[in-house]
Amino acid sequence: MPRYAMKIEYNGQPYNGWQRQDGQPTVQGAIEDALRKLQPDFDKIAAAGRTDTGVHGLAQVAHADLTRDWEVFRLNEALNYHLKPHPISILEVAKVSDDWHARFDATERRYWFRLLYRRAPATHDKGLVWQINYPLDVAPMREAAQHLIGQHDFTTFRSSTCQALSPVKTLDELTIEEVAVPYGAEYHFSIRARSFLHNQVRSFVGSLERVGCGSWKPIQMKHALDAGDRAACGPVCPAAGLYLAGVGYAQDPFTGAAPINTGGKR
Amino acid sequence: MPRYAMKIEYNGQPYNGWQRQDGQPTVQGAIEDALRKLQPDFDKIAAAGRTDTGVHGLAQVAHADLTRDWEVFRLNEALNYHLKPHPISILEVAKVSDDWHARFDATERRYWFRLLYRRAPATHDKGLVWQINYPLDVAPMREAAQHLIGQHDFTTFRSSTCQALSPVKTLDELTIEEVAVPYGAEYHFSIRARSFLHNQVRSFVGSLERVGCGSWKPIQMKHALDAGDRAACGPVCPAAGLYLAGVGYAQDPFTGAAPINTGGKR
């Protein structure tokens, strides 16, 4: 059975998250339904990362085992045809070896977060940003973020329902850019690690926002981390601004287009 | 009765265009409904430009006469509150003189158009771009656009239902930028004139796309213009990529934030 890797973009707004659930609209369910149009006995795909309700994908990666030997361009086009009118798009398909695994072979996950400051409510970007109506100060947020970089016990920034075996993770990057927009500003967070705990990114952004608005001093981020206590976390921020921006592999299965740039506005 | 000018941003997707129609969702109707929450006997607003079904606003301008003397910040906030959950947002409110008119005093309208080339269907930008699945060549499009600049009889690029008294208009700007995006490109058209004929911008973009894909030579744009015949126009392009990007006045009623930049991506 040939195995195919897929790079997937999706708008998370209409879905109860990535993971298939009977009777609920999910991204995984929609893609599996499209695969069953090509192969009625198709079972399931495996993905690099699950995303929660309302979280978006810019370059999620999943794999599927198909009985037929497909030319990758034709498989890509056929899947996008059958995915209509879902806001889910297969950006690239690659044939991979039988033992390649979208989840277990991933060496890095990259997230991107859009936080919009503007008084007037978002219109075209509704559901695609977390909006606040006061400006933030980037310098203290950057200072606070430095305390999170490296290997730590991230119990403070972990959902109580997180199923990871250990709360110890290594955060490789947490950078923040400010982009001027009419009548306000956007703050873009780029966050990178081998793997994440459940709600870790939204716990980071929610706590950093407390620093940016002056409610927390930057050093309080270190105190929160050191506490090793969920109660020490800032508010978990909304899902709407969060994007799974990319997945890294020792050998990237996709060729062609360059990786998604998570540094600027999409 | 004090008169107030409003700068308005909206996502045109859920609306049958700007203009109020009984029993249909329209942008004008939604804003008038919000005004009636503040003043039950409120009648109607006047806008600088009507937009068709599916066309968006970045900085539409309209005015309203209210019986009460409002502090502009409070009026702005109250309108945005009552507009929820519509994807319509009042960016700015200004008090203007009783004889100031959003439509008749406008000296310039600016439109912006987003054309996306990518094979994979748009997800987050669905309904916000016109998507094609082949690349365009910008240089010949720019050459063709030069034939349209200046004062001309634009009968070729005018809807048969256009109600303007004359087909003669002066086009002040038609510039095209190419912006690289993952797996494709966007072409941004910035178009500026004192006023436009119905469907003029979409007729321009639809014809320029024919040049960009190699189907028309640039000089054919001049031939089409000279024909003065609707049948000589290229296909009128879809509404989804079109934005009313700004309205100019001899004296801008709004102060504060800078005008919307129509040159780059929003």
TrEMBL record, chains A, B:
HAMAP family (UniProt xref): TruA
UniProt GO BP: tRNA pseudouridine synthesis
UniProt-recorded name of the protein: tRNA pseudouridine synthase A
Superkingdom assignment: Bacteria
Enzyme Commission numbers on file: 5.4.99.12
Domain Pseudouridine synthase I TruA alpha/beta: 9-105, 144-249
Keywords, ordered alphabetically: Isomerase, Lyase, tRNA processing
Entry similarity comment: Belongs to the tRNA pseudouridine synthase TruA family.
Gene for this chain: truA
